[in-house]
Amino acid sequence: MSELDVSLVKRGLWTNVQQGPIMGKTITTDTTTGNLVVALLAILSTLGTGHLWHLLTFFIHQVRANGRPADALFRQQQALLRTLPTPGTVMVDTFKLWRAWKREARRPFSRSLLLIVVAMLFSASTIAASIFSSLVVDTSNLVVLVDSPNCLWNISNMINNDVIVGPALAIAAPYANKCYDTTDTNLTACQVFVRPNIRSTSMRVPCPFADGWCEGGDAISLDSGLIDASATFGLNLPKSSGVKYRKKSTCAVLPLGGNTQVVNMTDYPITIGRTGLPGEQALLLNYGFRIGLPGNATFMTSLSLSNITDEIKLMPPLVHYQSTSVDAVETFMPIPELAHNNSNLMISALSFNSALWLYDFDDPLFSAHQSVAINSTVSNFLREDIFKLADYPMKAIACLQQYQFCYVGTGGDDICTDLNDVLDQRAPEAFPGANKVQQKILDMLMATSYAFSIFTPGALEIDAVRDIRGILIPILMKSNERWIFELEQLQNKLWALLQVYVADLVIASLSQAVSTADISVGSNGVAEKKVVPDEEKILCGSQLMRKSGGIVNINVFGMSFIIAFSLLVAIIDIMLLKFLIFLSRFRRTLAPRIDRWVQDGVWQLQRRAYEGHGYRGWIDLDKDIPMSTSKPRLADWPDRLGGGRANMAGIWRSTTGGSMRSMRSASVRSSQGYGTSPEMAGWI
């Protein structure tokens, strides 16, 4: 099935019910708007993580600011944290401090490692946040809501309508071949439906018919289990409108012994639609009464025609309903050996004609052992090759099909029917308490179950595997399992047909040819469009499909979270670190640790350095920015330590009358706990 046209995609805000009322909020828009949102979120996430790092460094500084005496490495680390550096700066400068103090300080590596690890982890978290912000805007393989002006959801117009079923099957068959037989559903062709495929469990089971009426002794069961219609077919409906569906097919190859008959074609002109050729004979398979054929004859094939065609033909199936509540129009009545309960009997036959096989093949259905010599030309040389013909011109296969339906009741629990014949469940009272939307979905599932059988897809995969001469090549198939493979392929195509059909109820690309059935003639003789019931409007607005390119999906929760978190962190950072900590009432609450944050500030450290050079008269010593009352002209810092010591010697002599030796003695006394003069507090 081709990708959904971008014009059929609903734009704006909608909710993906499967993801919940919060995480499912989605905005679908064009790629230009999506790119702007990505850029905005990238800026906001960077802003948010930057301010969050400021708060984290403030917290680390405050935890360490315990007021106890510490060495110079500790004080330099605190000064580094007070500058609110970036994580990269913390890693580099902490490493530099470790290099400088690795032989002088106590345990410099372990004391530096914590800051480096915290900075590295935060950097990794920042990268993860950036990736998360980009995931908020989804650009590929999107789940979108279909908005089609041609939506019908008119089941009666689309069942058994060749105008729709034929084209739908032409889409479904290649789709099933690509997307059902592989685990790689990321192929572009498979990115159409919300769920790329619907799997059935295949297993061998005992024969469901009379003893000896299953070729090979057993049958094969193809069971889908209960599938959620909303999740499987992409119906964006709340849980209260939930419906589940199960389909089980039990199939077996029917034996030929005693059930074949050869007749003259001239005796059945009505059945074959033409006059039989002289001497033309037909093979009959006798599995039950069918209108137009004698006795219990069910299928007929011309032996003469079989000799001149090499195509394997799957004949149209016959069905028998075991219904007790609804009368079914019967054109086929099976023999007692095929009696069944609580199921539909589907029977079809394969005419093998003159199809040639490359070698002997053992299989209950496709057995081929009859040798035939065929002259062929290879490289301009005529040679005789031996091929194989099917052991029998025609064989039959029968399937019992059962269905189960569940729906969410008013109490929230699932109400389920028994695994049964579909006709027994079409009565109005079969689903008590189901709301109108559920009833509409159930009607659709029952109608398709009634109209489509496992044999509806028609074509067999085995007929497509031929060499350049048209010889059948049943490669990579185990003995006795080819018939199972073919049934699995038919089942896959049937599910794909149902996927296409449900989607087209909304898109109406195939069903526009029958859309005139929605037009009625009013009392004034003017054509009027029929009133669409509310349940059909709901279903028309609930179809989800996949789409790549041209649009983007924005997760509203993710976008809102990034915006709110980034702005909140930025506001807290600015208010706390720039304003609140300098308010007297706030500082009294957090004192004395907050005072150490202020004193480790670059302006306070600068003030203390100038005081060490003899510049006095500072006020506002407990605030973020200290002020000088004398308005001095402050000199540049000396470029060498020696110059600094000379400067200090001059200042010391001019203010105290002492010498450098007495200054060093004062420094020693201070380090031993004897105290120092106020003039030397900044230097020491």
From TrEMBL:
| Residue ranges crossing the lipid bilayer per the database entry | 36-60, 113-137, 556-583
Protein's UniProt keywords contain Transmembrane helix = yes
Keyword annotations from UniProtKB, A to Z: Membrane, Transmembrane, Transmembrane helix
Would I find Transmembrane among this entry's keywords? yes
Q: Region entry Disordered: which residue ranges?
A: 665-684
Q: What is this protein called?
A: Uncharacterized protein
What species is this protein from? Answer: Pleomassaria siparia CBS 279.74
